[in-house]
Design a protein that fits this description.
- The protein has 528 residues and is an alpha/beta fold.
- The chain contains 15 helices and 18 strands.
- It folds into four domains: 2-165, no CATH class; 180-276, 3-Layer(aba) Sandwich (Rossmann fold); 283-348, no CATH class; 369-527, Rossmann fold.
- It is 38% helix and 21% strand.
- Residues 167-177, 306-313 and 316-328 have low confidence and may be disordered.
């Protein structure tokens, strides 16, 4: 069987490749006539070719790639997890050396092949050769300068020798960990690198191990977001890394998610959905959980295509509920109706909680106590500052959205001088309006505050963009006339940072430097 990038290849060439499948001498790494035929075809079509050979000497499958890579099909035989797959892969490198690449060795370990062999092709003939094996917890390689010095018996004997040492399936050092992800950002703007770095931090916060990050500097494709060539590259990485998720920084439509999932064969998530996963992970209060469910349903509803895919989160469990199918309704209509009803019910429950909060806020206002809200880009150090000023015990981690539910504590300054300090959810760029709407009740702590503390990470290379995001969100909430103190945090990291902006202070919430000056400025703004 021949598979892969066969477009543009003459039928006679494909037939020639297909004719190479069959039984051969089992004591040879690969039949020499087959190897010379494959090298000759490699030269003519200028594409990599891979040949899968079983231990009995049978060639089962042949794959065709491009000039620098080839997809590896899952040709594993049904063997015990404590053994290799019983298949070796011999592939060509057109106009190149036979040295194995990192991608080659990753494929060896993730697919548990008997052996991975690269053959350099020069002038249509085999040149140098390198073979790699899984040996215990490492990859061991053997290099031969030419075909004439290739030792078939030595290499074939290594399969049994190393298999005995590698009895546990995931012991190889570069075998991917569970819950792995590949990041993709299709963006031609100069901010693409910074956005991708932030996406990686989001994935880290979700507990995913990022194996690769790919940036394609072009405008998104309307059907697949990424270009077909780039998707082929991602598909190869998915195969050799055994990746579970592909995460796009772009906001994807329902059809794009469906198309890319079908093409790659793995779960595809966009940036907003990843953020929602993190929200769901960190929400602890009843209202926080309701808000996450509401945002998730509002964001998912327009994407619902009715293909029967579960609206499940990374950690399991998604939008539940059972609806009775009406006469003549399609599953799509039923799902949409169920989600719309759930959105209505959640909105009603959140509205009740909002009214309760409004009553508490009104009582505070009548008592004359001042309110101060801490806002800022996610991971700017808001919770660390809150703990330093109030000993609130708020979770403060070096992760995005470590705090989701607002926390309020009273600070006593002097007789008749006290105020409430509230730590709010962090802001982040490119949040859909559904998210802002769902969390509006939480963000209202900033809307009704007497003073806003805008915390920025002065050590961030992306400080200007992050500050603009916070300013835009506050503007969208209608916060324009509220006094603001701009706090530049993490001065212990960026020790040379300085600013001449009015009503600003440079601090380190971690060490406490500058916090007394901040307290004095707060007292001045609140009590004159």
């Amino acid at each position: 069987m021949v598979y892969g990038n066969v477009k543009g290849i003459k039928k006679s060439v494909l037939d020639r490749l297909d004719a190479l499948t069959g039984d051969y001498e089992k004591n040879l790494l690969i039949d020499r006539e087959v190897l010379f035929d494959v090298a000759d075809i490699t030269e003519k079509i200028n594409r990599e070719i891979c040949v899968f050979v079983t231990r009995s000497g049978r060639i089962t499958t042949i794959g065709v790639g491009d000039g620098s890579s080839v997809n590896l099909e899952d040709v594993g035989r049904k063997r015990s997890d404590k053994r290799f797959q019983g298949v070796r892969c011999i592939h060509t490198h057109p106009r190149g050396s036979g040295k194995l690449s990192e991608m080659d060795t990753s494929a060896l370990t993730s697919m548990r092949l008997d052996m991975m062999v690269a053959v350099g092709v020069m002038h249509g003939k085999p040149n140098d050769i390198e073979a790699a094996f899984i040996n215990g917890k490492k990859v061991e390689k053997f290099y031969f300068k030419s075909l004439s010095v290739l030792n078939d018996a030595q290499l074939l004997a290594k399969i049994s020798e190393f298999e005995k040492k590698s009895v546990i399936p995931d012991i190889v050092e570069n075998t991917p960990e569970k819950h792995t992800a590949i990041l993709v950002n299709v963006n031609s703007s100069p901010e693409a690198e910074a956005e991708t770095a932030e996406l990686k931090r989001l994935a880290d916060t979700m507990g995913l191990t990022v194996t690769d990050a790919i940036i394609q500097k072009q405008n998104p494709d309307k059907n697949f977001c990424a270009g077909k060539g780039k998707l082929e590259e991602i598909k190869r990485l998915v195969q050799i890394r055994s990746t579970e998720y592909v995460i796009f920084n772009n906001m994807l439509t329902g059809s794009q998610i469906n198309n890319v999932e079908e093409f790659l064969g793995v779960k595809v998530i966009d940036r907003p959905m990843l953020i929602l996963e993190i929200f769901a992970k960190h929400a602890t209060s009843n209202e926080g959980k309701l808000q996450v469910q509401l945002a998730m349903m509002k964001y998912t509803l327009p994407k619902l295509l009715g293909q029967g895919k579960a609206l499940s989160r990374i950690g399991g469990g998604g939008a539940g509920g059972v609806a009775t199918k009406g006469s003549g309704e399609t599953k799509l209509e039923t799902d949409r109706r169920r989600i719309r009803r759930s959105i209505y019910e959640l909105s009603e429950r959140i509205e009740i909680l909002k009214k309760e909060r409004d009553l508490r806020r009104e009582r505070r206002k009548k008592s004359g106590i001042k309110t101060v809200a801490i806002v800022g880009y996610t991971n700017a150090g808001k919770s660390t500052l809150m703990n330093l000023m109030t000993k609130a015990g708020v979770t403060a981690e070096d992760k995005l959205f470590a705090t989701l539910d607002p926390v309020t504590r009273k600070i006593f300054v002097d007789i008749g001088k006290e105020y409430l300090l509230t730590d709010t959810v962090g802001f982040i760029d490119n949040l859909p309006h559904e998210f802002v709407d769902a969390f509006r009740s939480t963000l209202e702590e900033a809307v009704y505050a007497d003073l806003i503390l805008h915390v920025s990470d002065c050590s961030s290379p992306d400080l200007e963009r992050q500050d603009k995001v916070v300013g835009d969100v506050l503007k969208s909430l209608g916060v324009a006339d509220t006094p603001v103190i701009h706090i530049y945090n993490k001065a212990d990291v960026n020790v040379r940072f300085a600013t001449d902006i009015k009503d600003s202070v440079v601090i380190s919430a971690k060490t406490g430097d500058g916090v007394e000056a901040l307290k004095n400025l707060i007292n001045e703004k609140l009590f004159g």
